[in-house]
Write a structure and sequence with these properties.
The complex is a heterodimer of chains A (about 325) and B (about 575).
Chain A (H helix, E strand, L loop, with lengths): L19 H11 L6 H5 L4 H14 L8 H11 L16 H13 L8 H10 L17 H14 L7 H9 L18 H13 L8 H9 L18 H13 L8 H10 L8 E2 L6 E2 H13 L16 H7 L8
Antiparallel strand pairs in A: 1-2
Helix pairs in contact in A: 3-5, 3-13, 5-7, 6-7, 7-9, 9-11, 11-13
Chain B lengths: L10 H30 L5 H13 L4 H17 L2 H21 L4 H13 L5 H14 L4 H14 L3 H14 L4 H14 L31 H17 L4 H11 L8 E7 L4 E10 L6 E5 L2 E3 L4 E2 L7 E7 L12 E7 L4 E7 L5 E5 L2 H4 L11 H17 L4 H14 L5 H14 L4 H22 L4 E3 L19 E3 L20 E3 L19 E3 L8 H4 L10 E3 L11 H8 L5 E3 L1
Parallel strand pairs in B: 10-11, 11-12, 12-13, 13-14, 14-15
Antiparallel strand pairs in B: 1-2, 1-9, 2-6, 3-4, 3-7, 5-6, 7-8
Helix pairs in contact in B: 1-2, 2-3, 2-4, 4-5, 5-7, 6-7, 8-9, 9-11, 10-11, 10-13, 11-14, 13-14, 14-15, 15-16
The chains are: A mainly alpha (about 325), B alpha/beta (about 575).
The structure holds zinc ion.
EC number (chain B): 2.5.1.60
Family (chain B): Belongs to the protein prenyltransferase subunit alpha family.
Protein name (chain B): Geranylgeranyl transferase type-2 subunit alpha
């Protein structure tokens, strides 16, 4: 019953240099196939999709290739009476897409396209008695939504509009035996959730509440012999988990606990040399989601061909400097 | 998109696929638009249920459609009688079950199922539990299902011991199941809570409880049960020594609870008319209600952390009003109250004394050892023996090596120091991608040992040269240290935490790779800084030293900065108090 190590093998002919031009072309073309079946199926997360595409373009210094006017108009049309923003027109508002919309508008310095006060009211209205946040009015509770709430408010400079102490108390009640965090109290640790919770604690100035050595150990144990990182023990490596683990390690001041050169090799191997873009693993289909997290991961690893990315908000550092937002990191 | 392998196909295949997708797109868009327009018109009928069902079956992440379904169901609740509602919701459960079969990791389907279960007039929680059993038997790591199970357990009051038995079964059939071990870590403290430590003499019990999490005291496990768990875990890692789940769990079992919130040290200096307070964990002294009483008189003081980088810190300082304690012929009694936690600590400054302190030391609190009672540590000894046996079979197993180190530290950190160092060396070789982690962990343990040695010797000299240190930690334990020797290590910086060494007079750090002195900041007594052969390269790197008023001697030989022009005059300007400069 011995466990077999789950990992991938990187082929010797896998890409080993960063194909920036191809990625920029891939993202620029992505939005133009609006009649595609797969594209239509992903309408329910369109706002986040746009955020992934624009952020990676900005990190590659290619933002002007995107259609700013069209996108701002789209966001405007996605804000609802309640203040919340939906993934697309005809869909219901949700914290996930409210954050994505606010992030996009920060990239474009055009927050005035939406009613900011109403966004703040919407976020505030989703906080529950126990400090947690529901994703929307239907009441799903998740630490992801705690992150979305404080990240949105931090970008808008309105953190004081919610009960921060209660929000912190809830997130800390999701801390586990391994120092990590899950969706809700009692839920198993998961790298995506850990990213949300460390990011949350950074934005609320509470990073000292972490057991950084224990959490850092769990996080650096996500690195597999291929160099890639997985999101939980005994799972396959993935470019997006590589970002979540790496960003969390950066936030808690322990990014040097993984082998950076090996991770870089893994991320580069997930590029598609023909189409541009990154996949979750070498040889899989690419998408904008993994393309952003591939490039952002390389940025955190110190690649000088892409702009510096902020590990908490996954946005270019120069954008955050412009807003005057510098989330805490542990030293 | 996850796990979709890219396949090469011929032009003809491509064309066929394109046509097929076009057809699918038409059907999809028609159904979606029909849903949207019905909803806009406020129609809540069977056809809408049919249409959303059709779409959600292939795209369960389309959250808005679940919302629409819920609106319809809530409408039906108002027009149908209870039996009909029960039937409708049961049909809804079958539908979500079929969605979950196709996509067991859809947030939307799981949330909807929970919503339906909670609204069912006559819920059948036993069925929900057995659904979880079936789902977990297909994928015992599906965290959505685990979370749903926890909801069901909570709603229906399944006893904790029954759930613990469930994890026994899962772990019994497959030890490599991190999710089950995790679940155990949440159940055990409920079933077998650890007894809280007796409050120390100067502290009243805290009134407010910390948020519950397995890290805190309220979520530790009683000793007897701990010993049983050791056995279970041992079975697991003897069966499969490379499975990380059990090793992670074991480290938690060996760990210590977070310390009670208390004031662990109060220090007062007559010369500087200054008080320093150390807390058992980082706090923000400006907001926790700290009260300083001197000779019965509450004092109005400004608390500041040792470095502007810290809003939360274990060490805080304040200046007393000038002239309050500077007469050496007077005795003073000082009390610091932490009003929020209903705890305090006294400190007396006697006639003729320049400084005084009152504290719990690391040795008093056995901070760096096991929490087991003395008679039970023999169990750890036998644990160590069996893990060592395993190591003989698996000499390069990293989990085994690390666990041996942890057991040795729990038993006798100083006695096992040499063996610990050797095991760390092997670890760095067999698990080289994590070498930096092991170096930092080894540094931490060496610092702990040096703190213990210093306290046994009752001296204020902290000497840890030539130990391959890559990081500094526990600096809050070094508040009273007057002389620190960090020479011949691999340090790259003296971090902001270094400013906790408020009594420091001499800093020796020759032969490191230090390029950053951020933490040598406002150290009121610092006179000597020896930094021979480091990587100080600019004047800006030395800027923090300018905040140390008594600095007289500075050795910078063998640093890149000595090669820059005008370095001597620029240093004289930056650090006017330095009279003995070695370049
Ligand atoms: Zn992924």
């Amino acid at each position: 019953m011995g466990t077999q190590l789950k990992d991938v093998i990187i082929k010797p002919d896998a890409p080993s240099t960063l194909l920036l031009d191809k990625h920029a072309d891939y993202i620029a073309a992505y939005g133009s196939k609006k009649d595609d079946y797969e594209y239509t199926l992903s309408e329910y997360l369109r706002m986040s999709g746009i955020y992934w595409g624009l952020t990676v373009m900005d990190l590659m210094d290619q933002l002007p290739r995107m259609n700013q006017q069209e996108i701002t108009d789209f966001i405007k049309a996605c804000q609802h009476e309640c203040g919340g923003i939906s993934a697309s027109i005809g869909h219901d508002p949700h914290l996930l897409y409210t954050l994505s919309a606010v992030q996009i508008l920060c990239l474009y310095e055009s927050l005035d396209a939406i009613d900011v006060d109403k966004v703040v009211e919407y976020v505030k209205g989703l906080q529950q008695e126990d400090g947690s946040f529901a994703g929307d009015k239907w009441g799903e509770i998740d630490t992801r939504f705690s992150f979305c709430a404080v990240a949105t408010l931090a970008l808008l400079g309105k953190m004081d509009m919610i009960n921060v102490d209660k929000a912190v108390e809830f997130v800390l009640s999701c801390m586990n035996f391994d120092g990590g965090f899950g969706c809700r109290p009692g839920s198993e640790s998961h790298a995506g959730q850990i990213y949300c919770c460390t990011g949350f604690l950074s934005l609320t100035g509470q990073l000292h509440q972490l057991n950084a050595d224990l959490l850092g150990w769990w996080l650096c144990e996500r690195q597999l012999p291929s160099g890639g990182l997985n999101g939980r023990p005994e799972k396959l490596p993935d470019v997006c988990y590589s970002w979540w683990v790496l960003a969390s390690l950066k936030i808690i001041g322990r990014i040097h606990w993984i082998d950076k050169a090996k991770l870089r090799m893994f991320i580069l191997a997930c590029q598609d040399e023909e189409t541009g873009g990154f996949a979750d693993r070498p040889g899989d289909m690419v998408d904008p989601f993994h393309t952003l997290f591939g490039v952002a991961g390389l940025s955190l690893l110190g690649d000088e061909r892409v702009k510096a990315v902020n590990p908490v908000l996954c946005m270019p550092e120069d954008v955050l400097q412009r807003i005057g937002l510098q989330p805490d990191l542990l030293s | 998109m996850h796990g979709r392998v890219k396949v090469k196909s011929s032009a003809q295949q491509e064309e066929e696929k394109r046509k097929e997708r076009e057809k699918k797109l038409k059907i999809y868009v028609a159904a979606r638009d029909a849903c949207f327009s019905k909803r806009k018109e406020g129609v809540w009928d069977d056809e809408a249920l049919q249409l959303t069902q059709q779409l959600l079956s292939s795209n369960p992440d389309f959250a808005t459609l679940w919302n629409y379904r819920r609106e319809i169901l809530m409408h039906l609740e108002t027009v149908k009688d209870e039996d009909e509602v029960q039937k409708i919701y049961e049909t809804e459960l079958s539908f979500t079950e079929s969605c979950l079969k196709m996509n067991p990791k859809s947030y939307g389907s799981w949330h909807h199922r929970g919503w339906v279960s909670a609204r069912l007039p006559r819920p059948d929680w036993a069925r929900e539990l057995s659904l979880c059993d079936r789902c977990l038997s297909l994928d015992d790591r599906n965290f959505h299902c685990w979370d749903y199970r926890r909801m069901v357990v909570k709603m229906s009051g399944v006893p904790v011991d029954q759930e613990l038995a469930f994890t026994d079964r899962l772990i019994g059939s497959n030890f490599s199941n991190y999710s089950s071990w995790h679940y155990r870590s949440t159940l055990l403290p409920l079933l077998h809570p650890g007894s809280p430590e007796p409050p120390s003499p100067c502290c009243e019990p805290p009134q407010s409880s910390p948020p519950p999490s397995p890290q805190t005291h309220s979520h530790r496990v009683c000793e007897e049960q701990l010993l049983k768990e050791y056995e279970l875990v041992q079975n697991a890692f003897f069966t499969d020594p490379n499975d990380q789940s059990a090793w992670f769990y074991y480290r938690w079992l060996l760990g210590r609870a977070e310390r009670e919130e208390m004031i662990s040290c109060v220090y007062v200096s007559r010369d500087e008319e200054r008080v320093a307070v150390v807390f058992s964990r980082p706090v923000n002294a400006q907001s926790v209600g700290l009260l300083l009483v001197l000779d019965g008189q509450p004092q109005r003081v400004e608390w500041r952390s040792v470095h502007p980088r810290f809003k939360h810190s274990p060490v805080w300082i304040c200046d007393l009003p000038p002239g309050t304690i500077n007469d050496i012929s007077n005795e003073h009694n000082l009390t610091v109250h932490w009003t929020e936690k209903h705890t305090h600590r006294d400190c007396a400054l006697y006639t003729g004394r320049n400084e005084s302190w009152c504290r719990d030391t690391a040795t008093d609190q056995e901070l760096f050892r096991s929490e087991l009672s003395v008679e039970k540590t023999s169990v750890l000894q036998s644990e160590l023996q069996s893990v060592k046996q395993l190591q003989e079979l698996e000499p390069l197993n990293k989990w085994c090596l690390l666990t041996i180190i942890l057991l040795m530290r729990a038993l006798d950190p100083l006695g096992y120091e040499k063996e610990t160092l050797a095991h760390f060396q092997t670890l760095k070789e067999v698990d080289s991608v994590r070498a930096a982690y092991y170096s930092d962990l080894c540094s931490k343990f060496m610092i702990e040992n040096t703190i213990l040695k210093m306290e046994y010797a009752e001296v204020r000299v902290f000497s840890i040269s030539d130990k391959n240190l890559t990081t500094l930690c526990h600096l809050d334990q070094l508040l009273l240290v007057t002389h620190i020797n960090l020479s011949s290590n691999q340090l790259q910086r003296l971090p902001p935490q270094f400013a906790m060494l408020q009594c420091l007079e001499v800093l020796e750090a020759d032969n490191n790779s230090i390029e950053n002195l951020e933490g040598v900041y406002h150290l009121p007594r610092l006179e000597e800084v020896l930094l021979k052969n480091n990587k100080i390269s600019t004047l800006a790197d030395l800027q923090p030293l300018a905040s140390c008023p008594k600095l007289k001697r500075l050795d910078l030989r063998g640093n890149p900065i000595t090669q820059t022009t005008n370095v001597e005059s620029e240093l004289a300007e930056l650090l006017p108090s330095v009279t003995d400069l070695l370049l």
